[in-house]
Specification:
By secondary structure, the chain is of the alpha+beta class. It is built from ten helices and twelve strands. Helices cover about 35% and strands about 30% of the residues. Helix 1 (about 60-70) runs parallel beside helix 2 (about 95-110) and helix 9 (about 230-240) runs antiparallel to helix 10 (about 265-275). The longest helix has 20 residues, at about 185-205. The model has no long low-confidence stretch (mean pLDDT about 95).
Length: about 300
């Protein structure tokens, strides 16, 4: 028996559309045990069992893909998934499942794949890299795709930088949220995002957060996706009013992520109260960056 623990991730971080990702100290844990045959699994979300069909279980999908790639048959597996990352909230829950399946398969097969091969297989299954890379590596990652392969640069993030995640009871699937994005963008909007993405990366590297409010600005996706989240702009504005340094949509949403050095509880409560005024239930998590990434625990 062995465990795999994988952190939540937040993609985009405002201007870094499809190329920025950050690992966060909220975890899904996957417990694998060999059995004589078959694939048995239990999925628990915050200790409550939830029903999922085997064909929809991304751990199984990723394991089968990995074993098929090596022309091997899957052994009997019993899996317990301890899920703490909410589904369809822009926090990379699906990336954790895909990575868990690949990492478990790699371990069972005797570790024939290195990290690069693991990432590229995960990308093949997931379809985008901004969650996969930080989930495996931890920290802040800049990722690009070149010749259908992932290239990335990781930066360890200041763990004194506090992260507030406001999570409304609104589910948003990435595929659906992409449909509302324009097929083309204006040149001035592209320049706007390029400059702010560079500033945000430099700010995280140098740990100088003075320009965070500017660096987190975006014109490529947030304004369109905000239409799916009632009160989005008010939540962002109120977080800034309480002292947040930077605020952004997490991935495709619906979670909203804020960064600060202090006053994190007041920031979190202001975000939740804003949703509450609109009749939307929500919760918050106060945490920090995970710089380790996925861990296999024997």
């Amino acid at each position: 028996m062995f465990k795999i623990r994988i952190p939540a991730t937040s993609a985009n971080l405002g201007p870094g559309f499809d190329c920025f990702g950050l690992a966060i100290k909220v975890y899904n844990t996957f417990i694998f045990e060999k059995i004589p045959f078959g694939f048995e699994f239990i999925v628990k979300f915050k200790n409550k069992e939830i029903p999922i069909n085997q064909g929809d279980n991304l751990v199984y999908v990723a394991m089968k893909e990995t074993f098929d790639m090596f022309n091997k048959s899957m052994p009997g597996i019993r899996l317990i998934e301890e899920i703490n990352i909410p589904f369809s909230r822009g926090l990379g829950s699906s990336a954790t499942a895909i990575l868990a399946g690949i990492l478990a398969s790699n371990k069972i097969l005797g570790n024939p794949m290195n990290d690069e091969e693991i990432l590229n297989l995960a990308y093949k299954i997931e379809g985008h890299s901004d969650n996969i890379v930080p989930a495996l590596n931890g920290g802040f990652n800049i990722t690009i795709i070149e010749n259908n392969k992932i290239i990335f640069k990781k930066v360890n993030v200041d763990e004194n930088l506090r992260i507030i995640i406001a999570i409304p009871e609104i589910k948003i699937k990435t595929k659906e949220s992409r449909k509302i994005l324009p097929a083309e963008v204006k040149r001035e909007d592209a320049i706007f995002n390029l400059s702010r993405a560079a500033l945000l990366a430099a700010s995280l590297i140098t740990r100088d957060y003075s320009y965070f409010p500017v660096a987190f600005q975006d014109k490529l996706h947030q304004n369109y996706r905000a239409k799916l989240i009632p009160g989005f702009y008010d939540v962002v504005s109120n977080a800034y009013n309480e002292g947040a340094l930077g605020v952004a949509l997490s991935g495709s949403g619906s979670s909203i992520i804020a960064f600060t050095i202090s006053n994190e509880k007041n920031i979190a409560q202001s975000m939740i109260k804003t949703f509450s005024k609109l009749g939307i239930d929500s919760e918050y998590i106060i945490t920090s960056t995970d710089n380790e990434g996925a861990l296999i625990i024997d």
